[in-house]
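Observation: inputs received (chain + glutathione).
Thought: call the complex predictor directly.
Action: predict_structure
Action Input:
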Amino acid sequence: MSIVIHGVPGSPYVRAPLAACEEKGVAWRLAALGAPDTKAPAHLARHPFGRVPALEHGDFILYETQAILRYIDQAFDGPALTPSEPRAQARMNQAIGVVDCYVMPSISASIAFNRVVKPMFGMPPDEDAIAAAMPMARTCIVALEAVLDGKPFLAGETVTLADLHAGPHFDFLAMAPEGAELLRGSPLEGWLARLNARPSFQKTTMAVLRAALTAEPA
Ligand SMILES: N[C@@H](CCC(=O)N[C@@H](CS)C(=O)NCC(=O)O)C(=O)O
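Observation:
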């Protein structure tokens, strides 16, 4: 039984569970939603806050990306995406918390959304929102550089849920000129390159997801 992820292609929060499925070797399908569909009754039945992603696995429906990632890691065989060593696991959890509390509102919802997504739909970016988000974006980068601390991945030598959660937001940031500038010379650049070299990231880019939808028979 494959996992269905309901979500908007290109959303970093949607990409994370798709990449986790790839890392685990779990079959998945993206049930693509457009932005207005997230507030339609069918989706609100899955996710009362009208956001994405929502997971469907048989009769089990789950929302909140952290919970979805942990479910995928625990419910399936495949490489463990959570370290067993307590301090490494704590670093993983810390990075996940940083993404939800600080990266999402500044880097994703303000800089990348305004600079990358709005122009795709012919909408002007909110320059004030971008400028206002820059200090917090810098703090996020410094904080995650400290978590990375010279390791290949955020919690150690191997990919964990922290990388799968954070990576899509930083890949999104790198698409904005301000973001590429913020990341230039940061150890996060190498970390992101390591993630982008993985099949789990290559198979879940916005371009690949959109192309797959276009190729689907009507
Ligand atoms: N706390 C949620 C956040 C999910 C979230 O904010 N997703 C964005 C897309 S990246 C969304 O659904 N935005 C649509 C909206 O806010 O209406 C999670 O972890 O899943």
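Thought: report the result.
Final Answer: Residues 3-80+202-215 form a domain with the Glutaredoxin fold (CATH 3.40.30.10). The mean pLDDT is 97.
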